[in-house]
Amino acid sequence: MLLVLAVDLDDDLGRKTGIETPVLGRENVEEAATKLATADPEDSDVNVLFQAIHTRDELEREGEEVAVAAVTGVDASDVKANRAVGEEVDTVLAALSTGENVRAIVITDGAQDESVLPVIRSRVPIDGLRRVVVRQAQDLESIYYTIKQVLGDKETRGTLLVPLGVLLLVYPLVLVANAFDVAGFSVLGVLSGLLGLYTLFRGLGLEDAIDETAEEVRQLLYAGRVTLITYVVAIALVAIGGWQGYQSILTNAPTVPLPTQAAVFVHAAVGWFAAAGVTSSLGQVTDEYLDGEFRWRYLNAPFYVLAISVVLNAVSGFFLPGDDAMLITDLALALTAGTLLGVLSTLTFAIAENRFPAAPETA
């Protein structure tokens, strides 16, 4: 048995005429088509309904056992609309009450309604598809639907429209720049650079990494993580230390060889870097304690940072130019102190963890 299905995905039939769907039977479908044509003569679904009747009559004259029905979705998202169409197809198939295998011929008015074909095919085999459009505008709805899909897709929209928008802004921004006595080529260069950075950003797929980082920061804010504050402070301390090291080179060693300049930089900046490391590690230890996952060995981190900073300060001080250089005996003492600090902290917290476990061991 053949079933001619007229598909109205956005439920123009139900919304404009008040007819309950699905509509089954030639007379009922014809009545529904007439009411829809009266309510809105320009609606393309009118043609779909009459085409379904016409197809049904042709098949009947050829000796086929055939039925006709109209099914509709809802005026909402494609997922909801497709689901509604599937439910109505189930209702139609249950109403046919035939023991024969039913095959369908689907009638639609364009590409948008055809998105429901997989839903229909999951319920009944499809023998044919007929798209009904006005002859004077064969591809109008398909073009409209394609543009709508492109603009509705977030990824495609960002990829196409953002560069296009930047290009369209070039001329008006150059005019504005000229009005304020700013070189138009400067504006053009800035826009070209921004467009290049955006293209590189999209091409490398960095948007996912940025989104993940933003989500992690948001979770840290909502969870009240101390590390968020300590990381910000640590970044500021590193920046200050880098600036101090640079200024120290300009002041004390502008003409010395590069290795000596490196020693001057490290000697001036290492204290700030150590402060940044201690700050961030203490923030991490605090969060671990608040989460109930604290271990004594976590306290090694700030002591390791201090030990490393003592060693770096001493080594860089030994290579300073002129009278500022550290004596070999002082270097030996500093290296010994740094080593002892790391070893003692490791032993101390290992003993503390064995005697005073912070949390029960998991099996």
Automatic annotation (TrEMBL):
The membrane-spanning stretches of this chain are 158-176, 182-201, 222-243, 263-286, 298-319, 331-352
- Indicate whether Transmembrane helix appears among the record's keywords: yes
One Pfam family in the UniProt entry: DUF373
Superkingdom of source: Archaea
UniProtKB keywords: Membrane, Transmembrane, Transmembrane helix
**Organism the protein comes from:** Halolamina litorea
Name assigned to this protein: DUF373 family protein
